[in-house]
Amino acid sequence: MTTVSFVPVALTRRQAALVEAAAARIFPTTDTPGATEAGVVNYIDRALAEAYPGLLSLYRSGCRALAGESKRRYGVDFLKARPDQQDDLLTAFEAGGVDGFPKAKEFFGTLRDHTMEGVLGEPAYGGNRDLVGWKLVGFPGHQYGYEDAYINKVVDLEPKALDRPYPTKEAWNA
Amino acid sequence: MPNNPKAVDVVIVGIGAVGGIMAKQLASAGLEVVGLERGPMAEFEDYASKDSIRSITRRNFDERVRHEPISVRQREGAPSAKRFTSTPVNAVGGGLAIWTGSATRFMPDDFRVDSNEVQAGVADKARADLTGYEIRDWPISYDDLEPYYERFEWEMGVSGDADANPFAGPRKKGYPLPPLRQGARNELFGDACARLGYHAHPTPNGILSEAYQPPAPYDTRIQERPACVYCGQCNNYGCHVQAKLSSAWTSVPVAFETGNFDLRTNSKVFRIETGPDGRATGVSYFDPDGNVVEQRAKVVIVASYIYEASRLLLLSGKGKRGLANSSGQVGRRITAHGDVRYTGIFDDYIVNGFIGPNSGMRMDDFNGNNFDHTGVGFIRGGTIGTSGGGTPLERYDAIPPGWPRWGEAYKEYLAKYYTRQADVTSHPEALPHRENFIDLDPRFKDEWGIPLPRTTFAFHQNEHKMWAFLGEIEQQILREAGASEVWGFPTNRASRWAGGTVMGDDAGDSVVNGYCQTHDVDNLFVVGASVFPTMTGYAATPTVCALAYRTSEYIVGASGLF
Fold this sequence. Notes:
heterodimer; A: mainly alpha; 2 domains; 8 helices; 0% strand; B: FAD/NAD(P)-binding domain; 13 helices; 23% helix; 19% strand
């Protein structure tokens, strides 16, 4: 089973599916969008191809360990495990308590950081699709500035993101 | 040598805050100046970028900037590790490209720690254990620097309220611009401090609160720049409206205008050359293609960050000791700021910490020698203030202890509290300690095969006691401001380095004199935070810029240099 709807460039489709499933537990979809809707796996795959190639082997071994540990504990693949089982597994990784995979804690920490980068980073890097992360937390993104100081009130500006900032106010707001 | 460009009057190594000012001042005096900058000329698009993945997560505000490694270890005998650091920024403007803007003058007492605190009994009353520390006065005073602080503030444009901080030193003129708008920080930090009896004020800031061009008698050739728009992305970002000062759009364009300034970017200096008489004859550098070039000059100015200042002297000269090091003090007496940071979340108050400026309100009631140290167990202190850095990628780990770090509850937390949190921080002073120094790494080399500067550095007892004390005050302020939960801790993270080429009157135990001129080599100057005998609770920028103006004036007026 794979839910990944794009062709990954650094990860295999299988690894991408595992990463997407784990990210969906780290920042779950509730009544608001989560990691899946933000396109976190897309962000991570591109980051591993471009900025963090040195972490690819950690992802490879981490995915293997995630799948192996799920099979061992629950007799099913991680992708088919129940959400509470997936959470228990990720909790074990976070604590570093996975036999035969000493990098469990490091893998979880990296995956969590990258998940949040994919939720809260610039959409130009493949995540934060439709600015779901910024809308969720209330960050209006790349504003030219703030004419109001917004003292103790919600910033009611439409969030925006620029692929590439522009030097003039007119171009910025265009 | 493949080529041997003609001798010039002055060569400046590093065109950052100091190098830019000195290039402007010296070229304006008719001297022929070559500037060698190891990084590129930052383009406007790089400054304009508000890309948090690039600037915060990947720490690379300009993709063309080559991050050079240093090596670090905590104590002598321990193995060193190679580390890439985003400060200093290897580009024209240096750290000013991405600084926060915090631009406070040092206080008069900051120049007299030995006299006013150690000798005068403050340390005894405090019951401070100063074992291992190397404390001495500066050979120059606040009064010596006062006119140059003024020139820095009026030429580069500093926004502030000269009457707001009762601990500030005397000044002949106020700031050229009123303080930046503080927004919620006034209500939270300012009001809480007022209720507690502390003296909160807007941080004097190298960011323009109004459009500004220096008036006469200051340098009116400096271009007009617009006011801050409060985008909130100062620290680690370039400024897309150029309201934040950088050499790249203040001093450097004026230096070019003189016709006497030749800037060579992506040029890495690796040695100061000397003649048979021991005087400096110029520098050797790798040009952008990797060729070795020697630039001869009558005066050599090292205006780089502290790692490079010590390294360059240690790499030069004839003997093992390096150049200008008869005192053995090159690389010694390095200091840095610590980082004591507490965070509060507010159930009933929306902070919107992503709105600028990053360097907001602060108070100096527990900085330097401003308070009664009786029994506290340490001397000195730190400025305490609100801190910036409000984009989501800087805040997703700001979670109270015991709260989930992922999953549904974490998501709910972030959705509710991202806009309802504030930091109160201090970057307290560390005193120079004999176990802290820079030397050449015996193992690690840079891409040109030159040994890395190795820092051996740890914080010691005076700092640890100070951090605990300041942390209590920070928590008190956040609770007074109404935070429902407060957490944090001092970290061992060191930033804002100083020392390594210490300034002093005695050639036997210092590297440069009060004019940043090396005792051993009269036509060699080292200008920057590396000359500080002690650090203070403030960032170094205004003081290094004041030194740059003062040293430039000295060089122009000195006899026998040209």
